[in-house]
Amino acid sequence: MSVDATLLQSLVEAAPDGMVICDARAADRPVVFLNAAMERLTGYDADYIRGRNLRFLQGEDHEQEGLDKIRSALRQGTSCHTTLRNYRKDGTMFWNEVTIQPLRDANGNVTHFAGFHREGGDRLRLRESAEKTDPSLSTQTMLAYLRDDKLTGLLRRTYFDELVKRDWGLAQRESRRLSFLLFDLDCYFTYKETFGKNGSDQSFKRIARVIGGCFRRASDLCGRFDEDQIAAVTTGLDLAQASKLAEAVLGRVKDLAIHHPRSPVSRYVTASAGVVSLVPPHDAAPERVYELALQALRDAKDLGRNRVVSREAD
Q1: If residue 271 lies in a helix (H) or strand (E), which one and from where to where?
Q2: Cα–Cα distance for residue pair 50/16, rounded to 1 Å
Q3: Residue 138's pLDDT is what?
Q4: Fewer CB within 10 A of the terminal residue: the chain, N end or C end?
Q5: d(Cα 46, Cα 145) in Å, to the nearest integer?
Q6: Which residues contact 180 (CB under 8 A, 6 or more apart)?
Q7: Regarding the domain delimited by 5-125, which CATH topology (the fold level of the hierarchy) does it fall under?
Q8: Where are the alpha helices (DSSP H) in the chain?
């Protein structure tokens, strides 16, 4: 049954949540459409918002964890959900629950991003109220919120980065070897298209549990690095040992036998890995090993996926 375009327009305008569409092909991803609820939420009128990047709603508040998640989603062309501190036209701060969804053309290219915005203050106030009732719950809840990724239970990216910086500094002082392993699920975008968000989230949760179970030493770190990526850091392994560990992890992922009907690699979900091993030099930062691991991972994808590419850092 076809739906009249005027009816769809009326539906969007009547929606209680703010809705925007941004042009993914333009350098600054400007807003090209918004509904009335977005005007009410922010206090800005449509003429002011249209043509701008929505980062203006952050004001000067640029140090927010959710921003990294959004940047990653925009860069990868994936969906994401997060909460930001945004500022209305009158300067008042509000918690903005943001969901971003890529829109694709017939060839699968991302042409636009749809954004859904709603005020999250009531939900946060309910959580604060519960924490005031039970101080021990407050501490536990905040620690879990800061530390753990909601879906996988692995370390959140920001907390993972902080622990990597700590271990990097220790390794520099003690000339200790670190190995960085980066895992990415193969053809997972088509898996999401086939099974939807709930199905793909449940599968990713299972996969994350298996990968995390391979890094149980007290010195190991394992966290969600990006939308479909998991990273781990180990100490005391040389490049050959770290590569062998990565191969074992890929085998564990495939052994889950999660059916992937649209994968050109295997009938089951597989993963690729980039591995870098080094004794951190005193003039380098952890971002350097991130770059090398990402390049190794891209090489693994280019070579056919479902494999490990490793390299010794200079």
Answers
A1: strand 271-278
A2: 19
A3: 46
A4: N
A5: 35
A6: 231, 232, 233, 275, 276, 277, 289, 290, 292, 293
A7: Beta-Lactamase (3.30.450)
A8: 5-14, 36-42, 46-49, 65-76, 121-133, 135-147, 157-174, 188-213, 239-255, 286-302
- Strand, coil or helix: what is 301? helix
φ, ψ for residue 47, nearest 5 deg:
-65, -30
The three-class DSSP label of residue 78 is: coil
Distance CA 57, CA 102 (A): 21
**What span, in angstroms and rounded, lies between the C-alpha atoms of 234 and 242?**
8
CA distances from 219 to 178, 193, 234 (A): 11, 37, 7
Amino acid at the residue 73: A
Q: At what angle do helices 157-174 and 65-76 cross, to 10 degrees?
A: 100
Q: Could you give the CA distance from residue 278 to residue 9 in angstroms, rounded to a whole number?
A: 56
Give residue limits of the domains in the chain: 5-125, 148-312
Burial string for 144-178 (b: 16+ CB within 10 Å, else e) reads: eeebbbeebebbbbebbbeebeebbeebbeeeebb
Q: Rounded CA gap, 26 and 282, in Å?
A: 40
Contact 18, 118 (CB under 8 A): yes
The predicted pLDDT at position 292 comes to 94
Give the burial class of 136: count Cβ atoms within 10 A of its Cβ; 0-12 exposed, 13-18 middle, 19 or more buried.
exposed
Residue owning tokens 């501190």: 85
Superfamily of domain 148-312: Reverse transcriptase/Diguanylate cyclase domain (3.30.70.270)
The residues near 152 (Cβ < 8 Å, ≥ 6 apart) are: 204, 205, 208, 209, 212, 224, 230
Report which DSSP code applies to 36.
Answer: H
Look at residue 208 in the predicted model and tell me its pLDDT. Answer: 95
pLDDT along the chain (314 residues), means of 10: 61 82 92 93 94 92 84 90 89 88 90 90 51 48 60 88 90 93 95 92 94 91 91 94 97 96 95 96 90 95 96 79
Which pair of tokens denotes residue 149?
A: 């990724």
